[in-house]
Amino acid sequence: MKKILLSLTSLLILVAMVLVITSCDDRTTDLPIYSIDGIFVSSETIYADNNNETYAEVSVKIVDDSDIPVEGEVVTFSCNVGNIEGSATTNSQGLAIVKFYDVGVIETANIVATYNEESATTQIEIIAIPIYSIDGIFVSSETIYADNNNETYAEVSVKIVDDSDIPVEGEVVTFSCNVGNIEGSATTNSQGLAIVKFYDVGVIETANIVATYNEESATTQIEIIAIPSYYIDQMIATPDTIFADDNITYSTISVIVKDNDGFNVADEQVSFLSDIGNLITLATTNENGIAETTFWDVGDLGTATIEAFVGDQSASVNVEIIETPAIESVDLTVVPMILVNQVTQIRAECLNNLGEIPSDGTLINFSTNMGYFVDAEGNAIGTLYQTTIQNGIATLNMNAGTESGVCNVSAYIGEVIATESITVLPGNPVNMILVPSTDTVPVNGEDVLITAEVFDRYYNHVADGVDVAFTTTIGSIGELTYTTGGFTETTFSPGISSGIAIIEAVADSAQTSTAISVVSDAVHHIEFASTNLLEMSVQGTGGLESVDLQVNLFDMNGNFVSEPYTVYFELVSAPNGTTISESAASVNGIANVAVNSGIEPGTIIVRAYIDEYIFATRSQIVIHAGPAASVDFGIGEFNSGEEFGSGLWRVGVSALVNDIYGNPVANGTGVWFSVYGDAGETEISWANIIAQAGVGNVSVDGDSLPGVAFTALTYDGSHTNDEIYVKANIGDDDFYGWLALPLNQPVIDMVPVPAHVDFYLNGNNGQDLTAEIDIVVTDSQGNFIHDALIQLYGDRGIFQYSAGYTQGSDYHIVKTDAAGYAKAIIEFQVEEVAPAVPPPGQQTVQLNGTILGTETMDQTTIILLNYQQ
What are the helix and strand counts (H, E) for the chain? Predict the structure, then answer.
């Protein structure tokens, strides 16, 4: 009891100390935040085999808020089908791992992992167990000897596949047999094969072999047969003597094996043994019963006894191993000359001190100080190579390499050596260098030495006597020379033409060039580079406002002058505001200057000069007006129309197009005409105009004027004197104007009503009397002309106002109405009549009517009668 009390007391003290420590610490401790980082399965499927030996692993990763794995945390697991371990604690990688088992049900297992209040899910498919079956049973040999020897056996294999005939790995197949021994089971490999070994036990019989997989079996048979009885009929060594030359020479050992009936035995293994030297210990007889092996020395001298064994039968043969005869001579054969990179054959013939050719396989060495040896395919194998002699001869291919010169080739065996020289010639010319003694020479100057250095493709100097041909674009040059030590020389004469002389040299495939500047003499004369027409536009109108003029400076031989000169320029004549640069410096005989347009069009003449004796003049420079800024419309005058019948007339229309300075615009400027009834562009049906025109075109009368575009207007004559609204479209701008349609071929008819005026008759006692003049105006096609003004004149009487027909206060001028009709009133006084002696007195009055603006007129008369008593 005291012990328990003491423990409780200690506990209370400890709690109190913790509370005190906590109350004294102002710091706050935040609990770490852990979470699920993912859920994983080792396999997404598992067989519904209800076998706890097969399972899938489910793992959940727990990390802190810095994604660092957390160890020691418990995660719980559950599933809807199957069995899963209920919980697991995370390891050092933060993983909680459990096992999931199936219970034989085919379904999708939904697995839930829970940590704190967080969960994660995954799925595992529980699938049906696949169906596997035996696809076949096979044996490596259908027979085996009854020799009761485990070194000899036959292999038995069974193939297991699934229902898609795909081999299955890892399945166990069991085996049994009625006689002999067989391995009891095997597991299928990646090819689906389960392989075991079958051994005989010395019993001659048929072995029935059964393979079992699940509840399925397959059988096969192997015949166990008696061991045959063989013997060695013959044993030969060819040759029976070899040299102690470390396997350069060898002997072929042949045996013939027969059975007890004297027939040759095929596919029988023969063993060989030798007391000295070395050989291949096993060989198999061919279809003729012959087995062969190879015997060679290992440095021993003496008689080698070689034995052959077949079963319990044996035979032997002897081979003598003797000293190798020393090589006495090497004779080397090479070609005397070869081109670079060419392949040649080196041949060495050897004899030993017995005067015989050495044994085949004797090693011989080759070396070269230039080029390299190559194999049969042309691959480089070095400058030192060892090969073997066959029939006393060794051959080797050598590439001469890329360097010309003398190549020393050697062949040697031990201390015996032979050396020959091959001259490696340079290849054909491929590369060349040209070097002139100077790169600048005056016309008619001294000759220039040109040196050519010619190489093959590997930059070896070419052989002597190679032809080198020279050409030049200016002057003259020695045309053909020949190389010496890869070099050759020629001379270039500059002649009278200046410029860049391109000198080319050609030697076979080698070709190169160099340049020499042939500089000119002093200026002799100057010329403008071109006399063709140059065109520009006045300033500020958007066209080309400046052109360049080029002046060429020549020496007395017609060469461009190389030295710089100052060329001066002046305007001989030019439109207002035109400017030109006063001077320009020539470069390689060319001086350029700019001419700038002013505000007026016209032609320019420019004079260029160096001094008072050297000058040139240039014309053919034109300044055109700028784009259209204003249009003044015009129409054909009285009687200018062309008659087309049916009351239609065609008359010329013009548009005078000027730029902003009042200059006529350039010929060819496009103008598109259209007509309307008013400024609102109301369409009309009684007139049309040829729309497409251009400045400088030809009018209907065959005329052409600067800045004027002509077209033709067709209209119904009944609209003569009407005003029509004309539009000219030029580029992006529209221009408008009113035009009155002219009168063509008018006709005027005047009729007085009455034709005579009677004074003192019918109640008139001498009062003033009036007469009416009826007037009709038509054109020649019978169109009645409205608004025609007719001026009237009579040698008697006074014209009076006529409502609707009199124009203004001038009563003697009347205007036709819409029907082409006009009326005038004229008053006469009795005093204007001749006295009535005898009665009646008679006076004829002449009346004239003229259509204003025309020469068309008509006359009529009124007779004044005086009946005074």
Answer: 1, 73
Check whether the bond before 564 is cis (ω within 30° of 0).
no
Q: Contact 67/13 with Cβ under 8 angstroms?
A: no
CA distance 183 to 199: 9
Q: Closest Cα partner for 753 from 860, 643, 655?
A: 860
Average pLDDT score over residue span 836-841: 81
Per-residue pLDDT tens digits for 739-748: 989 988 899 9
Could you give the angle at the alpha carbon of 19 between the alpha carbons of 16 and 20, nearest 5°?
A: 85
Burial call 690-710: b when 16+ CB within 10 Å, e when fewer: eeebebbbebbeeeeeebbbb
Which tokens sit at 595? 């001419």
Give pTM, 2 decimals: 0.38
Q: How confident is the model at residue 237 (pLDDT cuts 50, 70, 90)?
A: very high
Matching residue, tokens 């706050």 = 28
7 membership: H or E segment, kind and range: helix 2-24
In this structure, what DSSP letter does residue 79 have? E
**CA proximity to 668, closest of 727, 733, 730:** 730
Phi, psi of 830 (to 5 degrees): -65, -30
Counting Cβ atoms within 10 Å, is residue 203 exposed (0-12), middle (13-18) or buried (19+)? exposed
- Tell me which amino acid residue 616 is: A
Residues 697 and 845: their CA atoms lie apart, in Å, by 53
The Cα 66–Cα 751 span in angstroms is 123
Q: Are strands 45-47 and 615-624 parallel, antiparallel or unpaired?
A: unpaired
Model confidence band, residue 343 (pLDDT cutoffs 50, 70, 90) = very high
Question: CB of 583 within 8 A of CB of 610?
Answer: no
Query: 727, 602, 737: which is closest to 663 by C-alpha?
Result: 602
Nearest to 71 by CA among 41, 46, 97: 97
CB atoms inside a 10 Å sphere around CB 32? 10
Contact 858, 849 (CB under 8 A): yes
pLDDT for the residue numbered 22: 41
Average pLDDT over residues 161-182: 94
Q: Identify the pLDDT of residue 556.
A: 82
Q: For residue 840, is the peptide bond before it cis, meaning its omega torsion is within 30 degrees of 0?
A: yes
**Quick one: tokens of 15?**
């709690």
* 551-562 average pLDDT score: 87
For 289, residues 6+ apart whose C-beta sits below 8 A from its C-beta are 233, 256, 257, 258, 263, 264, 265, 266, 268
pLDDT-based confidence at 3, cuts 50/70/90? very low
Instruction: Please give the structure tokens belonging to residue 584.
Output: 């320009």
Mean pLDDT of the chain: 89
Neighbours of 517 (CB within 10 A): 17
Element (H, E) at 22: helix 2-24
CB 318: neighbour CB atoms within 10 A?
A: 11
DSSP state of 23: H
